[in-house]
Specification:
With 392 residues, the protein is α/β, with parallel strands linked by helices. Helices cover 41% and strands 23% of the residues. The C terminus is likely disordered.
Length: 392
């Protein structure tokens, strides 16, 4: 049951534009305390842009966002835990020091954060590795540490962008248990993921975004009832490719030895059995609600052309190949290229003449390093300007 102790987050008519691209277009949503809210959508749909705009990482062009009926303030950050899609841990730092540092950013002292950190490390199976460096951990264990940094200050709103990334099935179950425990404490949880199975098992409410717009929203039960029309799941041995061509099948998602079928409304599920006899060896036949994955595909569809895929990338503000390069970055790259060419020519000349004078090559190598740094800095500024993110 969805807890409705109070409205934690309210978003009204949110819009975010990047140049001529509308990444988020009129998104409105509400998240209550004790609610697991799934923010879904295909790649490039605008999910991450929506999250970053809600959290004031980037400014919206239009819309109203409130937390407990109040606008976002600096103090609001101390009530929010955020796991970004891009990882932001300091690889050379010790694990415990990293967690304590992020706790201090949220106003939690080392004395208060230290026992919490050890408790979370134990919960995630890293209790004896608190003094290891982050870079010594596997990708999955680094993800656990990053999750701890989002939880260490005991937030009332937790926002997770692809939290299951890098986690094996065992640790996915562990994370699921953690989130369910937090839900019992009336913490509002918003998470974005491509793993429909996790959403289906955990979420109270979902919001599906496509091309910057909400195309489906509501409680998981309401959504399934809306799309639950004569759906049958079967498991079988043999070639099931013929299932899609049966006259009583309206839609078919066919996998290896498994199929999700939606029947024409005038047919009963039992009518299907006569069409299967002798063609496949049936192992399971179940009349069910459609899976969230099949609903997702039904609503969003599958991109069939490069242009459609490019359009989805544009919807999240991703740079398209035809867009002019930032002038500062362009100049920095040209400078780097010229300096590198001159350095190579001078070095080759010294080698061919057996010269002992290497002062000029040394200076030029320093110039290559400097111009390379300038080019990298210019690139980073462009990225931050167009699609900023990172851990907060």
């Amino acid at each position: 049951m969805v807890k409705t102790i109070g409205l934690m987050l309210k978003v009204q008519n949110l819009r975010k534009e990047f140049d001529t691209v509308v990444a988020v277009d009129g998104v409105s949503l509400e998240v209550h305390r004790g609610e697991l809210f799934g923010l879904l959508g295909p790649n490039g749909a605008g999910k991450t842009t929506t999250i970053r705009t809600i959290l004031n990482i980037i400014k919206p062009n239009h819309g109203e966002i409130t937390f407990d009926a109040r606008p976002f303030t600096h103090e609001t950050w101390n009530t929010i835990g955020y796991l970004p899609e891009e990882r932001g841990l300091y690889r050379k730092s010790r694990i415990l020091n990293t967690i304590l540092y992020f706790a201090s950013l949220k106003g939690v002292s080392h004395e208060a954060a230290r026992p919490r950190a050890h408790a979370w490390l134990e919960r995630f199976g890293l209790g004896d590795r608190f003094n290891d460096k982050v870079e010594e951990l596997s990708k999955g264990n680094q993800q656990k540490v990053q999750l701890i940094t989002a939880l260490i200050h005991e937030p009332s709103l937790l926002v997770l962008d692809e939290p299951f990334s890098g986690l094996d099935p065992v640790n996915q179950v562990l994370l699921k248990d953690v989130l369910m425990d937090l839900r019992k404490k009336d913490i509002a949880i918003v998470f974005s993921t491509h793993q429909m199975e996790q959403v289906e098992k955990m979420c109270d409410t979902i919001c599906l975004i496509n091309k910057g717009k909400i195309v489906l929203e509501g409680s998981l039960r309401q959504v399934k009832q809306q799309y639950g029309k004569n759906s049958v799941h079967i498991e079988f041995d043999g070639d099931g490719s013929f299932l899609a061509n049966l006259p009583l099948v309206k839609k078919a998602n066919i996998y290896q030895n498994y199929a999700e079928l939606e029947l024409v409304s005038s047919n009963r599920p039992s009518d299907l059995l006569g069409h299967l006899d002798g063609k496949i060896s049936l192992r399971k036949f179940e009349v069910v609600e459609p899976s969230l994955n099949s609903i997702f595909i039904d609503v969003v569809g599958i991109p069939t052309t490069p242009q459609e895929s490019e359009g989805r990338a544009a919807a999240s503000g991703v740079r398209r190949s035809g867009k002019p390069m930032d002038q500062t970055l362009r100049k920095a790259l040209i400078s780097l290229g010229l300096t590198l060419v001159i350095t190579i020519i001078v070095v080759l000349t010294r080698l061919q003449t057996d010269s002992d004078d290497w002062a000029l090559p040394a200076v030029l190598l320093g110039a290559v390093g400097f111009t390379g740094y300038k080019a990298w800095s210019a690139y980073r500024k462009v990225q931050e300007k167009e699609q900023p993110g990172g851990n907060v």
